[in-house]
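Protocol step 6 of 9: fold each sequence in the batch and record its C-alpha cells directly after the sequence line. For illustration, a two-sequence batch is reproduced in full.

Sequence one:
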Amino acid sequence: MIAWLIALPVLLAAFAATRRLLRRRTRSALRTLLAADAALLAGGLALLLTALSGGSAQADAATAAAAQSSGSGSAALIGAAIAVAGASIGAAIAVAYTGAAALAALSERPELFGRAMVIVGLAEGIAIYGLVVAVILIGKA
C-alpha cells in the first residue's frame, strides 16, 4: 500500500513533465520524452510486481498463505481495472471520431439525427462491454 502512495505523486509529476515536453517540437525533446516513457513503463512494471508479490519476505506462514490467497483476488481486481480503463479509453476515441462525423453529417442533412445517434451509441457500448468484463472478473475474485 505504501508503494502506491509513493508512486502516484511521482507518476503525476512525470506526466506533467512529459506534457511540457510535448509543447516543444525539437529532436532532443522527443528523445527525452521517449526516455521518460521508458522510465514510466519500468516504474509501472516494478510497482505492479510489488503489488502482486504480496508483502515482505519476513512474513510468517499464516500471513504468507493469506497473501497468496489474496494475490489471485488482487490480480482479478487489477484485470478488472485494466478492462474498464481500456474499454473506456477505446470508447472515448470511438465516440470522438463518430461524434465528429455525426455532427458533420447533421450539419448538411439534419434528418440523419436518428442514424447518427445510433452509431454514436454503438461506440459507447464498448465501455459497457468493459464494465461487463470487469463485473465477471470481480465475481471470480
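Sequence two, same batch, same settings:
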Amino acid sequence: MRFSTRALAVAAVSLGVLAATTACTGTPSPAPSASSASRASDEPTRSASSPTPAATDVPAASPRPLSCETLIPADTVAALHAQGWSAMQRDFAFGPDPVPGGIACLWADPSTASDHGLLYGWAPISGADAAAREAELVSEGWVREDSDRGVYVTADPRTTLSRDAEGYGMTYLFGRGWVSVSDTKQGLILINPRS
C-alpha cells in the first residue's frame, strides 16, 4: 500500500520489517479457500466481554516450524508463487525488539522495486505483553475493537491509503497467547500456523 510519511513511520516502528522499496500493498489477498476459512475458525476465541489475557497466560506455540510457506494456506502460497511473488521472512517485532518465536513475511515480486506486497505475521505473546502492545498502539492513534476472535488493533483509517473491502488497513489480531498481523484485516483470516 502507499503509505503517507506518518503511516510508513508507524509501520516501520510497529514491525521493523518493511524496507523502503518493499512497503505493503492494498492489493487484495488471494481469496481464502474453504479449507482456509474453516481452519481460521478453529483459532482460540475470546468474547468481546473477556478481558485481555492475564499476565499469567503462557504464549501459544506453533506445533510445526514457522515459515512463510506454512504460515498461510498452501493454496495461497501456490497462488502467490504463480504470480511470480516470493516471501521475505523477518522477525516479528514491535519497534526494534523482536518477539521470540514469531515471524513476519512480506510477499512481493522480487524482480520489481515497487510498493506492492502482502504482509502476514504471527508470534506467541504473553497476556501482559499483549496488553502493553495494545495500549501502545492505541496511544499512537490505532483503533482497538473487541471481537469473538480476539482484539483487533487497526491503523488509523485517516492515515491508511489502502484498505480492504471493509475499510481496514494494517491490523493486528491479539488472541490468547498469540498475535498476528496483516496489511489488511481481511488478510488475517489466512494466518493459521497451527494447521
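Proceed to step 7 once all outputs are recorded. Observation for sequence two: The first helix runs from residue 5 to 15.
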